[in-house]
Write a structure and sequence with these properties.
It contains nine helices and nine strands. The protein is an alpha/beta fold. Helix 2 packs parallel to helix 8 and helix 4 runs parallel beside helix 7.
Length: about 260
């Protein structure tokens, strides 16, 4: 039987897949947009030095240059597993193309990974690809066919959206037609492909190592991105952060 925490996590994931992450923006309080520096100044007393240092270390390793995209996955456990790998390896944006299928429930959760990521959900491949290409990303679909190049042929210091497909059928024909290129993970064994969560973890780790090898670093946030994420991470690390921010704005800070 699922625990209360697992049940709550499943509800949050269902809401995420239905309409996007159901979270308010910590930089907006009662219609007033706060500067990231103001959020940090208000919340800093409520963080330990260790937690603040951890946030800075995480920011050092964050990137928007490579973004994972999952399409048409029907098991929330697989969505969660890919999300955990993405967060652990420093990828800040995460895109989900939900499609028309109903998602199967799963006791596996994101282990909190989703609250640290910029999660975007899309109903169709066309909507997702249009957004990504407008943002300057090359869309690379993981797909086993004769036109696919091995993953080590790609330069992941370039803006790349790496797409992982359905557990049963892989990346959809619609998305393949829209993608710029296709890639595979070479396998020397008899099995030609990995399951989705393993394929994503291997691919994202490869991209991480490729970025380190080519340029000597993985994290590459701009100063503005870093300030914005720092404020968000502070808000998500402090209990009752919005109440504390509201009190400070009213000139009545908490203890």
């Amino acid at each position: 039987m699922a625990t209360r925490q697992e049940q709550e996590a499943a509800r949050e994931m269902a809401a995420l897949l239905a309409k996007g992450l159901p979270r308010t923006d910590p930089l907006v309080i009662d219609g007033r947009r706060l500067a990231p520096e103001a959020v940090v100044a208000i919340l800093r007393p409520y963080l330990t030095d260790e937690r603040a240092a951890r946030i800075e270390a995480v920011l050092d390793g964050r990137t928007y240059t490579v973004v994972p995209v999952v399409e048409g996955l029907v098991d929330t456990g697989n969505v969660s597993a890919v999300m955990r790998s993405a967060e652990a390896l420093g990828y800040q944006a995460f895109h989900i193309i939900t499609g028309p299928e109903r998602f199967k429930t799963s006791k596996r959760t994101t282990q909190g990974a989703d609250k640290w990521l910029d999660v975007h959900t899309w109903r169709t491949p066309a909507d997702a690809v249009a957004y990504l290409k407008a943002a300057g990303y090359a869309v690379v679909a993981t797909h086993l066919d004769d036109t696919a190049l091995p993953i080590d042929a790609f330069d992941f210091t370039q803006r790349t959206a790496l797409v992982f497909g359905n557990e049963r059928d892989g990346v959809s024909e619609e998305l393949l037609a829209l993608a710029d290129r296709r890639c595979i993970i070479p396998t020397p064994g008899f099995v030609e492909s990995f399951n989705i969560s393993v394929a994503a973890a291997v691919s994202l780790y490869h991209a991480y190592r490729d970025r380190l090898a080519r340029q000597g670093y993985h994290g590459d946030l701009t100063a503005e991105e870093r300030a914005r994420l720092r404020a968000r991470f502070y808000a998500r690390s402090v209990r009752h952060a919005r109440a504390l921010l509201r009190q400070a704005l009213a000139g009545n800070p908490g203890p």
